[in-house]
Each structure stands twice: as C-alpha cells, then as structure tokens.
Amino acid sequence: MSVVVQFSIFPLHATGSLAPYVARAVEVVRASGLPFQLGPMGTVVEGEWGEVMAVINACYRELEPDFDRIYVSFTADSRRGRQDGMASKVASVLGQTRDKS
C-alpha cells in the first residue's frame, strides 16, 4: 500500500542553524532512492510503508550518535493502489482552485 509521509527530524539543544543536521537527514532520504520533496517545515517521502519507515529510522540513526535528544514528527496518508501520490494530491487540490497554478 502506497504511503505519503511528511516528517521533520532535528536535534534539540543544538546551537545555531539546524540546517546542517537536516541536510544529513535529507542525504539519507536521497540515498534511499524513494521519491521525496524537501519543504520549509518537513520532508515528504513516498513509497511502501516499510520502505518509508526504514528511511525515517535511518535518519534517526544518522543523528543519534551525536545528540542526546532528537525531535521526530510525521503524518502519513496510506492509500491502496495510488501511484505518484505526492504529485497527484497537489494536482487534485490545484484543480479545484480558481488560480490553477
């Protein structure tokens, strides 16, 4: 069953910008080969449940050795038979708006 997951992960109590730590997680996502999209407040990943959860786990494991506390949150939408869910969900909403950007 296809799942689209938006997740955020970052260490707590890190000083300065969190961008270097988020970038480490994004590199893990990129290496997975799953479709993903980086957003301003999280990263969206699409695949089968086990694949996506394995990527989130790998992101956690990437940061775990360096930090005592890590924040992780995610939302998921699972749908049987869906193809290209990230793009189709956005296109569906835009198709209902007056400005079809």
Care to describe what's here?
- The chain is α+β, with helices and mostly antiparallel strands and 101 residues long.
- It has a single domain (2-94), classed as Alpha-Beta Plaits (2-Layer Sandwich), CATH 3.30.70.930.
- Helix content is 39%, strand content 29%.
- The chain is built from three helices and four strands; from the N terminus they run βαββαβα.
- It has helices at 19-32, 49-63, 85-94, and strands at residues 2-11, 36-38, 43-48, 70-79.
- A four-stranded antiparallel β-sheet has the order 2-3-1-4, covered by helices on one side.
- Helix 1 packs antiparallel against helix 2.
- It is globular and about 45 Å long.
- The two termini are 30 Å apart.
- The mean pLDDT is 92.
N-to-C CA distance: 30 Å
Q: Which CATH top level class fits?
A: Alpha Beta
* Shape, principal axes of CA atoms: globular
State which percent range the strand residues make up. 25-35%
Give me the count of strands: 4
Q: Strands of the largest sheet, in order across it?
A: 2-3-1-4
> Measured on Cα atoms, how large is the radius of gyration?
15 Å
List the domain count as a whole number.
1
Report on the biggest sheet: 4 strands, antiparallel
Please give the count of helices: 3
Task: Break the fold down into its secondary structure elements and pairings.
Layout: E1 2-11, H1 19-32, E2 36-38, E3 43-48, H2 49-63, E4 70-79, H3 85-94
Antiparallel strand pairs: 1-3, 1-4, 2-3
Helix pairs in contact: 1-2
